[in-house]
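ok here's the first one, seq then struct tokens
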Amino acid sequence: MQFALPPRRSPHPLPGAHSTRLPLYRRKQLKTIAVFAVAILTLLYILSHFFSSSSTSITAPAGTAGVVIVTLLDRQSLSESYINKIVANREDYAKRHGYTNFFASASDYEEAVGDAPQSWALIPAVRHAMATHPKSKYFFHLSPHALIMNPSISLKSHLLDRSRLESLMLKDYPIVPPDSIIKTFALKEKDIDLIITQDSDDLNPSSFVLKNGDFARFFLDLWFDPLYRSYKFAKAETHGLDHIMQWHPTVLARTALVPQRVLNAYSKDSSGASPDGSYKDGDLVIRFPACDEGKSGDCDELDPYYAMWWKKVKGT
């Protein structure tokens, strides 16, 4: 008996017939193109999400301070009486305006800073404050060698209000004095995440305001990069910041530079102030740069101004 064999496929297609399958190499090409397209679209989505979210305001819910004042204290070198003065100054201001204080200890960040100068600790201190108060909108870093001298004015009315900030910012201005070819942008308040001043030599991070958000975390991580900390900058984190502002337009494009006296006036006995950067009565802050290099644990230059501040507090 013979069994019928199944019909065999002819190796030659019938006239008029066309294969519906793409050649193997063509399918591989299309697959590669599809993978690259998905990767590019994903990258564009991430970048658009980053820049849109960085400018999105964080609104502090009821019962949460909109401003956190960050003060880094070296409790191993500063005297207890001096620390008490700084704490009293910050607590009075915070209580008046519903702000929150974050007092950080420099010793808590020794491991993170490593072999770099300990002045770098201000960066993880601000990052720590943001992690502790994630719903707060602004973080105001202020040197322990500075006093808030005008307790009656809020940070909002003095600096953060839209029209006020846009009128104060220095536009098309050398980012590093006196004649850096890199200059500030003309920005709108909604696009600003970092507010800072400069003295006669550099940008000065002893007093700055940082808006909470993705950009703030990116900026602090970039600034604290081990490469910058290991580089022998003469002024450590200050020169690291100068470098970032001049070489990273992504950061500069979200930074407002304001006159020194707005946020960081130097005492009249301090050198290095910018033109019109020395303290005048009515300024929000006075800072004592020479005390950064002091070895006594106190800052004698602060005492007469502390007495003036205390008199204002008692009178209000």
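and now the second one, same deal
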Amino acid sequence: MRIFYGVQGTGNGHITRARVMAKELHAAGIDVHFQFTGRPADKYFDMEIFNGYQSCPGLTFHTEKGQVSYLKTALDAKPITFIKDMKSLDLSGYDLVISDFEPVTAWAAKSQKKPVLGIGHQYAFNHKIPREGSDPIADQVMKYFAPADVGVGLHWHHFGQPILPPIIDTPETPKSIIKNKIVVYLPFEDQNEVIRLLSPFENFDFHLYSPEPVPSKFGHITCNPLSRDGFQKDLYNCSGIISNAGFELASESLQMGKKILAKPLHAQMEQISNAAALQQLGYGHVMHDMDSSVIEHWLHDNHAVHITYPNIAKVLVQWIQDGMPEMDADFIEAVWSTVEVLQIKQ
């Protein structure tokens, strides 16, 4: 079986999910070819598992000071390049096309009349789940950015809908944590402002990760470049994370029992909705602006949620090999019945 798999590379969440899928696809002996779009080719890192992947510009969202700018997004778009990349992508030799909200692959398959399987968090928004911050532009982006014929949506809870749990690695639960260690991943915020807000909390050690780290003059604030291994090591034994409201990092944090403080991007419906879901489920705290008082309250709250999710990547690979039968209510219920949610004190 040969699969062409397109992955949105603007943020690291889609790539993290693709790493887990790649491992299970390779284990099943499936020949899979990956394409990544949404960032410059030299900005990808720790990509060895993708075995000679390809990349192209694609489409991405312009962010500035924690907010999506649709005007700059439109101005930065290169439609001629996008159409050229789409038309030059030959999918004729593949048995299945998968898109993790990646537009070049999705639209190339559509133009070549190849059915597309969409796998990702965005496809959960085709169902009745917590949804806030919506507007006509956001609705159109969600519908047409990377259309799929069959969409497998992922979320932290089923909300009574035919969606699946997150695709994440399932590491063993940390045996101990460092209570004052906090991982910070706010790549769309002004890093100097982040450091300024965290500087008064000297009883905590903050480990910041960003695409372009800035120097820190504070001993309790360490600034790191993006690194999959380094980030995972710090995440493993920290007590909590402060991050934007992306889906994948929150999923990993819940799997490891970390407390969460999420700051959604302004004007980004998906992140605003994720924040609403975290609050509704009681899985995390939210600040809609960078707020030192909210940070201080959260730092001294020792409540966290630990969720054990099954290996959804393995479930999906088997489902694909079985011919992708309809995911009926019994299938969905069987998957979610293995999920365990525990309220814990750190």
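notes on #2: The longest helix spans residues 12-27. Residues 2-167+310-339 form a domain with the Rossmann fold fold (CATH 3.40.50.2000).
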